[in-house]
Amino acid sequence: MGDPKFSRKTYDTPSHPWQADRIKAEVEVVQKFGLKNKTEVWKAETILRNLRKQSRDLQARLRTGDAQAKIEADALLAKCGRLGYLTSDANLNDILVLKDEDVLSRRLQTLVCEKGLASTMKQARQMITHGHIFLNGHKVTVPGYIVSRAEESSIEYNPASPFTDEMHPMRVSADQAAANSAIRAQAVSENNEEEASE
Fold first, then answer.
1. Mean pLDDT for the stretch of residues 148-165
2. Higher pLDDT, 49 or 9
3. Element (H, E) at 193
4. Which residue(s) pair with 125 in the sheet?
5. What domains, with CATH codes, occur in the chain?
6. Alpha-carbon distance 89 to 102, whole Å?
């Protein structure tokens, strides 16, 4: 039979438990993306930390002329492009400037809300956990599932879900979905302008 598999933590906790600036920033991210708790923020940070470490190591090896490093760099960039973190013409330096929001925006919960299938992030999370969302023709009940670019277009309502009825009282209208997406796009552009000015 073999030994049972022991699950490992998929994230690293902060080095210090009380840092006011970090806690305030994490609370804002939790509210913005409708996360359950800060553990999901730490998971995104760990994913990003691992990608950055790989990028730095590969850049150092490429400077020494390592042929294997070129293969691994291409594979890393292809993975980041496939998961939607980067565009297809990105390089290893682009990985170093990724932010937590780039990872969190690829979660199923975020994409369900952005596609207009739910009116809020909280509703998107509830719909996923209750089995109202299909991905690639299968029910997915994990809000934190990282959706690849190929799978993004296959997000839809569960055919057996009452949300497929357009007259469902909790369903988002097309006008409301367009208004929500316009508000989100404006907020993103304002954030980018603020960062550019800083």
1. 91
2. 49
3. helix 174-197
4. none
5. 20-100 (no CATH), 107-197 (3.10.290)
6. 17
